[in-house]
Write a structure and sequence with these properties.
Length: about 110
């Protein structure tokens, strides 16, 4: 939660308040690969204008190890493709994590 508050403040300051950020916590917890503890992940969407704001927000996201997914709200097919890609990535990571856990438990 503290990391999310810091993230919001950084984005707000970097864009001088010229953005809209919406976030939501995931309902299920995910294992942290570094510590193997279960952690709550957050999904966020930021609406902003301009390439300069884009560059600043991207740097902030990268510094806080957020995964970025491009999203063009004006192209419905691209929205569906992005959703499918994200879902497949989550499923693949779940399979990998389960396989790793099974090998560790043996």
């Amino acid at each position: 939660k503290d990391k999310l508050d810091l993230f919001e403040r950084l984005v707000y300051r970097a864009t001088r308040g010229n953005m809209f950020l919406k976030h939501q916590a995931c309902e299920e917890e995910f294992p942290d690969p570094a510590t193997d503890k279960m952690v709550v992940k957050h999904i966020f969407v930021i609406f902003f204008g301009g390439q300069r704001a884009h560059d600043k927000i991207k740097k902030i996201c990268e510094s806080m190890t957020a995964t970025l997914y491009p999203y063009n709200i004006n192209n419905q097919q691209e929205v569906l493709d992005t959703r499918t890609k994200v879902t497949e990535t989550i499923e693949d990571l779940g399979v990998t994590l389960r396989a790793t856990k099974d090998v560790r438990d043996e």
